[in-house]
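FAQ: What does the model actually see?

It sees only this:
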Amino acid sequence: MLGLVITPNYTMYKKEFGEPMYKTVGAVVGGYVEHVLPIYLPRPFCLLIDEEGKLNNKRVNPVASGWYSRVDPIVGTVVVMKDGYVDGERDIVGLTEEECDMLIADVVYMSDEEYRLIDEPKEEENAEEN
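And it is asked to produce this:
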C-alpha cells in the first residue's frame, strides 16, 4: 500500500509498504507506530509516527506538526496514509497516486517550496533522517 513519507530534513518520498504494516512502517518511522489524526488534514488521512519520538529527542517535523496541531509538535519521520476498511474491518489503507500527488503539492506549498520530493532512500539512510 502506498504511503507518503515526510522527514524532518525537508525531504519526502513515495513508498510502497508491505505486510505486516506495523513492521514496515515502523522501520521507516524508526520505532513503535502510533496512529494520530491531524486537525488540519482532511479525513480520512492519518499520520503514522514514532510513538517514542519525543522521548528519543527526534527533530521536529514542521509539516506534520502543522497538520497535527499548532501546539503539540510531531517529531521524526512520518508516513501519511488513510483510515479505511479492509474486509469490512476498520484499518489503515494506502493512498492513491492522485492523493499522494495532492499531498506532495500541499507539503511544497506549506513549506514555501523548502521540501523536495526525492527517490526512496536506501534503508540505512532512513535511520539518519529521524
